[in-house]
Amino acid sequence: MKIHFIYRKTNPGNYSIESIYDQLLSYWKKHPEHEIDPIKVQLNYNYDLGAFLRCWFGSLLGNYKCIHVTGGCHYMMLAFPRARRILTIHDLVRFQEPKMRFWGLYRLLFYTLPIRFSHKIIVVSEATKAVLVNQYPKAKDKIEVIDNPLHPSFIEAGKKLNSAARPNKPLHILQIGDKALKNYERLLEATHRLHVEYTFIHANTERIKTLLKQYKLNDKARILSALSQEKLLQAYCEADVLFFASQAEGFGLPLIEAQAIGLPIITSDRLPMKTLAPYALLVDPNSADQIRSAVQSIIEKGINNNQLQQAKNEVSRYEVKHIAEAYRSVYLRFA
To answer: Could you tell me if residue 327 is left (phi over 0), alpha (psi between -120 and 50 degrees) or otherwise beta?
Structure first.
């Protein structure tokens, strides 16, 4: 079964969607018994008119039987009028952020028309599905929830954590993502006076550099960008806790990655975060006091290692083989 996977333009440091589908394509190529023949179509621009026209004419000629727009370039759904069309929507945070210029046109091309034009829509959490159905009730019967896969390197890695009190060593906090909804500003507000140090993984570093200078934390923090999978895993293993108390998420893959290696987590008391990380310390993402208290608790008391091990045991359902089979089931039914 030949499936064309439409990838957005590659943006340095912003590779989460690409990582998800690269894993799936690699898995199917190694397992021909699944009868999935994946073909990757990579855009060269964020708004790639040339690729759109080539695909549109190719579709009219019957060159595409089934296509899957993998996210971040939803408008490409309109370029395949004669194909079976599957769309993945990773989140709907645009609907919760201040509206951008030309929001009406953007919504039309990236959501309304692609959703209407799709035969099947994949979302990555029940929370995203709920928001999507609220915005587009008629799409309800098209939607299917499939989790994101965990990279095998996290499953293979292990980490022994010391839950004892830490009176001398700074608590090393890992934070991932540079969007405002990732809540790193409130993290710094809450913890800049505590005995901590930070690693920030940001594609756009301008804002975090300004904040570190403002709080006089340059000597207690490092900023990393455009990491390889090996370097990303290393950053996890060097940390003492993952801070992922976002104000909104479509899925939250770092929560799964942290649990796979037994890393303690502070996350939001909101969906989908609190269900993805049931053993995490939950906080109101808008409360600096709660964030400060959670960090202080880990500094003074550590984390229950039994709970960390339980969380580690439960992430096996995110292995790529299980996620690949869920996608294969969709393709068999709709391709």
So the answer is: alpha
DSSP 178: -
Q: Could you give the C-alpha distances from 135 to 15, 78, 140, in angstroms and in order?
A: 27, 20, 10
Mean pLDDT, rounded, for 32-57: 96
* Contact between residue 174 and residue 131 where contact means Cβ atoms under 8 Å apart: no
Can you tell me the distance from the alpha carbon of 109 to that of 203, in angstroms, rounded to the nearest whole number? 25
Cα–Cα distance for residue pair 320/297, rounded to 1 Å: 34
Asked whether the CA dihedral 292, 296, 299, 303 is positive or negative, the reply is: negative
Residues of the chain with CATH 3.40.50.2000: 2-149+319-334, 152-317
CATH classification for the domain delimited by 2-149+319-334, as one of 3.40.50.2000, 3.20.20.80, 2.40.10.350, 3.90.650.10: 3.40.50.2000
- What's the pLDDT tens digit per position in 274-323? 999 999 999 999 999 999 999 999 999 888 778 888 888 889 899 999 99
The whole-angstrom separation of Cα 147 and Cα 145 is 7
Stronger pLDDT, 43 or 16, i.e. the higher one: 43
User: Mean pLDDT throughout 126-144?
Assistant: 95
Provide the token pair at 201: 């993984």
Task: Note the pLDDT of residue 95.
Answer: 81
C-alpha to C-alpha distance for 68 and 334, rounded to whole angstroms: 11
- CA–CA distance, 312 with 281 (Å, rounded to integer): 15
Question: pTM value?
Answer: 0.88
Please name the residue that has the structure tokens 């964020």.
Answer: 46
196-201 β-sheet, strand order:
221-224, 196-201, 171-176, 241-244, 265-268, 281-283
CATH label, 152-317, candidates 2.30.30.230, 3.40.50.2000, 3.40.50.720, 3.30.479.30: 3.40.50.2000
Predicted confidence (pLDDT) per residue in 83-109, tens digit: 999 999 999 888 876 677 788 999 999
91: nearest Cα among 67, 74, 113, 104: 74
End-to-end CA distance of the chain: 8
